[in-house]
Amino acid sequence: VATTVEEASGNIPAAPISLPQGSWKQIAGGVTAAKGFKAAGMYAGLRAAGKKPDLALVTCDVEAVAAGVFTTNVVAAAPVVYCKKVLETSKTARAVLINAGQANAATGDAGYQDMLDCVGSIATLLKVKPEEVLIESTGVIGQRIKKEELLHALPTLVNSRSDSVEEADSAAVAITTTDLVSKSVAVESQVGGIKIRVGGMAKGSGMIHPNMA
Amino acid sequence: TMLGVITTDALVESDIWRKMVKVAVNRSFNQITVDGDTSTNDTVIALASGLSGSPSISSLNCKEAAQLQACLDAVMQGLAKSIAWDGEGATCLIEVTVKGTETEAEAAKIARSVASSSLVKAAVYGRDPNWGRIAAAAGYAGVSFQMDKLKISLGEFSLMESGQPLPFDRDGASNYLKKTGEVHGTVTIDISVGDGAAIGKAWGCDLSYDYVKINAEYTS
Fold first, then answer.
1. Which end of chain A is more exposed for a tag (fewer CB within 10 A), N or C?
2. Secondary element (H or E) of residue A67
């Protein structure tokens, strides 16, 4: 199944997504297609230049069973170290916060504390435990996140959440860096005779040779 | 860096979900390459709300698990391919399919070796149907196979069979690469290395002058 390039919300087009053949149908939406999920994407002033959205949030109305795979690069970014640690002891999560602009990798203890401050703030706003919040970052390696700008944007981000296709698209745009297109897709199928949905968003264009575990 | 967030409303137990996600990632994101650089930040988070009302999946060896795994594989492969398609400076997606190994992991390893080869990627950008580079990248993948079983096709063009190069329409094969690049389409490379039943796929992109330009000037 191949779709044509379509305009996504934000200022880059959506990627053509080519799915293998199977007993599913492609549907509109991405991370918000499945029941219980909301998303938001906004410009928070994190990028070095331009006004493309750069902060995204995905939340679940209930405790979602959580899995994570992470880079096996020994020099892992602060969010990778944090998420691995959290998922060693926690089986569920309620939110994923993602920033673009700075990778918060090779930023030492200060970078890790920046990330913890963001986790604490979003957890308070969402009224969930900090360990129910997971984090992803992308951007320039060696640069700490613009914490003040990020913290300032969080209330707006939380209030912008919805289960609409538009907000799923906004979130998909907000996680991009050098990407020329945003990547988002959802499918509907059946499990045990009951309709289920699987959706997702991704980003990536360069520094791409994943070896995740 | 590649990042991903996957969501589902299927109901699945934690340890089963983690195994399913690992399998899907190995069939998708771990099988793409753009430039051979592994990021410090690569992450995929997958969340299952369980709100669909579907039966709980508590074993990998059931029909329901297979159904969910297939959907998960499809979504992750769709997203993974779009990352390779959008590779910095790329004019086309390269899909490498390897058959004939004993295990899926062996086939996947050969496929990724070919998709990762800078020489193969540069040849595709140069519209050069260079079967020798494809054969070489398959050969150094770290998977043993008999050279006289090697078979290579580029799109509809058979370039090698039983380890022997075939006469082929070089201009036609070059034109296939050119036309595919003009529409940012998909170049397919099919390889067979033996009589095994396993199949593996990998996805990459061609390597252009623009890749260097983008990364020489990158700030954010």
1. C
2. strand A55-70
